[in-house]
């Protein structure tokens, strides 16, 4: 279950978190991952065959999301401290940006932090295993890993072309930092 850190409070209750994120225009769900994948997900890194095994084990989730939201493609991102160039990869997304397509992530191992500035409010959503989040196109956000430097996340796409970050000047969108 996610944790939300606002300037004045920390939200940890599932229903409160969901309601808060809905009020900000974000989609949040908590989906248990299949126990059959626990052993492979416990590994830090995954081979291509193991990544395919994980996506295959989550095909039922993809099928549901295709039906409900029209996603057309998915892939699996595996990041950890031994991934070459990881700091450069993180540096691309840890500054405020938008995309012209939705950013949809299902966290299936590890943890990370999405930050947002929505309606002038800056807040963080700390995500972990089982958290599903959809960030609409043109929403100001950033992403980074926490001190564990480890995450596995399925990405769902409607359109692969929207994937370049468009950087946003924080001072222009922030009202009450
Ligand atoms: Fe992004």
UniProtKB/TrEMBL annotation:
<keyword id="KW-0223">Dioxygenase</keyword>
<keyword id="KW-0560">Oxidoreductase</keyword>
<comment type="pathway">
    <text>Amino-acid biosynthesis; L-methionine biosynthesis via salvage pathway; L-methionine from S-methyl-5-thio-alpha-D-ribose 1-phosphate: step 5/6.</text>
</comment>
<keyword id="KW-0486">Methionine biosynthesis</keyword>
<feature type="binding site">
    <location>
        <position position="141"/>
    </location>
    <ligand>
        <name>Fe(2+)</name>
    </ligand>
</feature>
<dbReference type="GO" id="GO:0005506">
    <property type="term" value="F:iron ion binding"/>
</dbReference>
<keyword id="KW-0028">Amino-acid biosynthesis</keyword>
<protein>
    <recommendedName>
        <fullName>Acireductone dioxygenase</fullName>
        <ecNumber>1.13.11.54</ecNumber>
        <ecNumber>1.13.11.53</ecNumber>
    </recommendedName>
</protein>
<feature type="binding site">
    <location>
        <position position="99"/>
    </location>
    <ligand>
        <name>Fe(2+)</name>
    </ligand>
</feature>
<dbReference type="InterPro" id="IPR023956">
    <property type="entry name" value="ARD_bac"/>
</dbReference>
<keyword id="KW-0479">Metal-binding</keyword>
<feature type="binding site">
    <location>
        <position position="97"/>
    </location>
    <ligand>
        <name>Ni(2+)</name>
    </ligand>
</feature>
<feature type="binding site">
    <location>
        <position position="103"/>
    </location>
    <ligand>
        <name>Fe(2+)</name>
    </ligand>
</feature>
<dbReference type="GO" id="GO:0019284">
    <property type="term" value="P:L-methionine salvage from S-adenosylmethionine"/>
</dbReference>
<feature type="binding site">
    <location>
        <position position="97"/>
    </location>
    <ligand>
        <name>Fe(2+)</name>
    </ligand>
</feature>
<dbReference type="InterPro" id="IPR004313">
    <property type="entry name" value="ARD"/>
</dbReference>
<feature type="binding site">
    <location>
        <position position="103"/>
    </location>
    <ligand>
        <name>Ni(2+)</name>
    </ligand>
</feature>
<feature type="site" description="Important to generate the dianion">
    <location>
        <position position="105"/>
    </location>
</feature>
<dbReference type="InterPro" id="IPR014710">
    <property type="entry name" value="RmlC-like_jellyroll"/>
</dbReference>
<feature type="binding site">
    <location>
        <position position="141"/>
    </location>
    <ligand>
        <name>Ni(2+)</name>
    </ligand>
</feature>
<comment type="function">
    <text>Catalyzes 2 different reactions between oxygene and the acireductone 1,2-dihydroxy-3-keto-5-methylthiopentene (DHK-MTPene) depending upon the metal bound in the active site. Fe-containing acireductone dioxygenase (Fe-ARD) produces formate and 2-keto-4-methylthiobutyrate (KMTB), the alpha-ketoacid precursor of methionine in the methionine recycle pathway. Ni-containing acireductone dioxygenase (Ni-ARD) produces methylthiopropionate, carbon monoxide and formate, and does not lie on the methionine recycle pathway.</text>
</comment>
<dbReference type="GO" id="GO:0010309">
    <property type="term" value="F:acireductone dioxygenase [iron(II)-requiring] activity"/>
</dbReference>
<keyword id="KW-0408">Iron</keyword>
<dbReference type="GO" id="GO:0010308">
    <property type="term" value="F:acireductone dioxygenase (Ni2+-requiring) activity"/>
</dbReference>
<keyword id="KW-0533">Nickel</keyword>
<comment type="subunit">
    <text>Monomer.</text>
</comment>
<comment type="similarity">
    <text>Belongs to the acireductone dioxygenase (ARD) family.</text>
</comment>
<dbReference type="GO" id="GO:0019509">
    <property type="term" value="P:L-methionine salvage from methylthioadenosine"/>
</dbReference>
<dbReference type="GO" id="GO:0016151">
    <property type="term" value="F:nickel cation binding"/>
</dbReference>
<feature type="binding site">
    <location>
        <position position="99"/>
    </location>
    <ligand>
        <name>Ni(2+)</name>
    </ligand>
</feature>
<dbReference type="Pfam" id="PF03079">
    <property type="entry name" value="ARD"/>
</dbReference>
<dbReference type="InterPro" id="IPR011051">
    <property type="entry name" value="RmlC_Cupin_sf"/>
</dbReference>
């Amino acid at each position: 279950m996610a944790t939300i850190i606002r300037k004045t409070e920390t939200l940890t209750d599932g229903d409160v978190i969901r309601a808060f994120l809905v009020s900000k225009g974000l989609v949040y769900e908590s989906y248990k991952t299949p126990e059959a994948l626990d052993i492979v997900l416990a590994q830090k890194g995954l081979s291509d065959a193991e990544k395919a095994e994980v996506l295959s084990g989550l095909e039922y989730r993809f099928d549901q999301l295709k039906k409900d939201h029209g996603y057309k493609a998915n892939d699996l991102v595996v990041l950890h401290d031994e991934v070459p160039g990881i700091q450069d990869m993180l540096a691309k997304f840890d500054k405020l940006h938008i995309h012209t397509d939705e950013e949809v992530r299902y966290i299936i191992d590890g943890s990370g932090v999405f930050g947002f500035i929505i309606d002038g409010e800056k807040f963080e959503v700390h995500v972990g295993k089982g958290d599903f989040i959809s960030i609409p196109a043109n929403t100001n956000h950033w992403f980074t890993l926490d001190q564990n430097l480890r995450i596995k996340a399925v990405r769902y796409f409607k359109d692969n072309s929207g994937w370049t970050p468009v950087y946003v000047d924080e001072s222009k969108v922030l009202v009450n930092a």
